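$ ./design --mode recover --in tokens.txt
reading tokens...
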């Protein structure tokens, strides 16, 4: 799995840097609130604007990539992230940062959806191995992000934003040099394709599962720094542990559990354990030791979920993988964008326990949706050649109907 072409490693490196942006701002949420006199719900909009734009923009990733090619799409996304992060670092109000984070989300959408499809199509080995490589990049980026954010954030809350811009500049150079020119798709993708893809009940069920799961995930990510009430470095270290746990289970544990128990059974049990973790955080919100420990434990479950859900999406329906990724990402990011803002609002107007209860309820509902969808996902653990044949047949039908 680890012997891959240089192009795959180039995109994986850029993915690490891109995913750093998710956790990088976590340690500086409270410093931003303190320095700019903002409430938790206002600061949480940094996540909301980022994810909302990313979710909607996922609909155009296939359209752009099929017309200008994957490499140019990746580079365009990286350049937009550089601009969004740099301008956020120069902002003077929370509103300005929220706006530039939205631009950042646009760049991330162009990059992430294209990166996944590029790694899956270019990597040696099976789809499952390619996704594990992608999730390893995701896990490493998420793990390092809070640590870098905490270190730079201890100097200034602006530091992490400028740090992302600098690292993304390196990623642009690496991608431009090592990723060969990629041809345009044989068939240009349309805006309607992701919506057509969601007609497949299996894919729709997985997307809704991910939406509800991400509601709990981003409640934990965006709200926990406020009841923790620690320094940027302290929060950064806790979420670094969370990221390490996530990276370990996504690469090492998830494939083993999948092989032994099957994809769907592993996912449902994993979601129930994540529900229990959020419930514990809701009960013991006033204990920093419990909150910090639960954040790290949650990383174990999030890593398993990320790997297996991503693989399930790639196999859920006999459609092109780029279209499946765009449809799934639109639902999960667009819908879960509400979670950070709502968590901050509930914490301000009711109490700090309620956001975690709501997050736990959402993840529990996600387990229910996935369990109800299982008849449409019975083929998930079939051999990949059979799945690839179905996808090729579907692509042939689509091209024939367009001509």
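writing sequence...
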């Amino acid at each position: 799995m680890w012997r891959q072409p240089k192009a795959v490693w180039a995109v994986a490196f850029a993915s690490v840097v891109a995913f750093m942006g998710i956790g990088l701002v976590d340690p500086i949420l409270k410093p931003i609130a303190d320095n700019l006199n903002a409430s938790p719900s206002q600061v949480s909009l940094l996540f909301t604007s980022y994810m909302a734009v990313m979710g909607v923009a996922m609909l155009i990733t296939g359209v752009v990539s099929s017309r200008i090619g994957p490499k140019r799409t990746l580079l365009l996304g990286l350049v937009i992230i550089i601009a969004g992060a740099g301008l956020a670092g120069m902002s003077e109000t929370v509103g300005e940062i929220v706006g530039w984070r939205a631009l950042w989300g646009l760049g991330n959408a162009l990059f992430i959806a294209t990166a996944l499809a590029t790694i899956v199509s270019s990597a040696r080995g099976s789809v499952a191995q390619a996704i594990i490589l992608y999730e390893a990049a995701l896990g490493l980026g998420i793990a390092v992000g809070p640590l870098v954010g905490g270190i730079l954030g201890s100097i200034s809350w602006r530091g992490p934003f400028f740090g992302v811009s600098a690292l993304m500049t390196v990623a642009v150079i690496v991608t431009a040099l090592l990723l060969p020119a990629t041809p345009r798709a044989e068939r240009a993708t349309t805006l309607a394709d992701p919506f057509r893809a969601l007609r497949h009940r299996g894919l729709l069920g997985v997307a809704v599962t991910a939406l509800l799961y991400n509601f709990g995930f981003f409640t934990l990510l965006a709200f926990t720094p406020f009841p923790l009430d620690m320094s940027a470095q302290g929060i950064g270290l806790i979420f670094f542990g969370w990221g390490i746990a996530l990276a370990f289970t996504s690469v090492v544990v998830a494939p083993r559990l999948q092989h032994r128990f099957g994809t769907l059974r592993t996912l449902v049990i994993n979601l129930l354990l994540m529900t229990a973790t959020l419930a514990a955080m809701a009960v013991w919100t006033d204990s920093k030791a419990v909150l910090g420990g639960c954040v790290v434990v949650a990383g174990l479950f999030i890593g398993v979920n990320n790997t297996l859900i991503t693989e399930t999406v790639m196999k859920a329906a006999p459609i092109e993988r780029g279209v499946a990724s765009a449809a799934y990402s639109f639902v999960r990011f667009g819908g879960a964008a509400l979670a950070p803002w709502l968590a901050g609002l509930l914490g301000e107007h009711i109490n700090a326990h309620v956001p975690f209860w709501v997050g736990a309820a959402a993840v529990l509902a996600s387990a229910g949706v996935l369990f109800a969808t299982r008849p449409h996902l019975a083929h998930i653990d079939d051999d990949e050649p059979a799945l690839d044949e179905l996808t090729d047949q579907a692509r042939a039908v689509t091209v024939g109907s367009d001509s």
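exit 0
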